[in-house]
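In this supplementary section we document a worked example of the pipeline. Step one takes a protein sequence of length 310 as its only input; no multiple sequence alignment statistics are reported here. Step two produces a three-dimensional model, which step three serialises into structure tokens for compact storage. The input and output of this example are shown verbatim.
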Amino acid sequence: MPMRVSRRRSGRPLRVDSPSSDTDHSERTGCHMLWACRSVKWTPETGMDMAEVNFRDLIGISLVLGIMVATMGAFISFFASGMGENPAKSLRTGGLIGGGMTLIVLVYGSWRLFEIKQDRRKSGVTREDELASLRELLRPLEAHAASLPWAQEKAWRLDTHVRLDRGTMTVDLHDMDAEGARKMLDIIIQNRERIGRLRIVTGRGKHSAHSRPVLRPLVNERLNQVAHQLDWQLIPKAGSITLRPMGDRPSLRLWMLRFLVFIGPITIALALAFQDLAGSGARGQGLAFGAVAGVILTGLLASYRKRSVY
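The serialised model returned by step three reads:
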């Protein structure tokens, strides 16, 4: 860095400023940037490393939902009694309902996490393997993208436009033309069995001619034609469309196993909650209603489809 020379009005040098102050400032700035980079895990393959849902997260989610339901239950119980009921009783009712919700979410979520972990262990496939496989399938698109007029300025590349985004396989169609988008869809459809959950970023068309989207209508129309046949669920959002496999229905054996795991805690939680909610004059009816509701809810929860691991 060149030294700055301060001069009097006469033009004679007064002093020579050492660049140490600027250097110190640059070093401090560099340290701050380094600290910020280290605070966020970043990899060229996945971008920011988003934490997956684990058992600790599940406990937090269960508690938050339980507190919300408990609060609403307490208010409903208090106002339903014409505000003449002892507030402590309303709080107890809300606590039972909220506790039941926490238990249901915790049991159901824990079993889902267990199944996902087992499926990953059996398959032996990691997210990096899935990403590498998807990039290999879409490799012909890179050659097509290199021939586009804007390729020198905004190139569509596999390492930047096919990535893991918050745990979901993502194909970004920004910097791609309509022909390339059609080729991508053909590859995805032909290899449907090898591809799990997939998010296709289409953009909103703000930079297209007349600010009208081009790729999104094309992608949406093509996928809607084959979604039912390929057993895909389409989840449209503002600038993307997510493909989620519908998954396989559980076998009778798996359904029975889930039912036996869920039936106890869910039925007990609902039976106690409805018993207290029914009041002293109809506790028996509330208990019976809660038990029946628990059995029905257990049957529904045990029927969920096994979708893609990722």
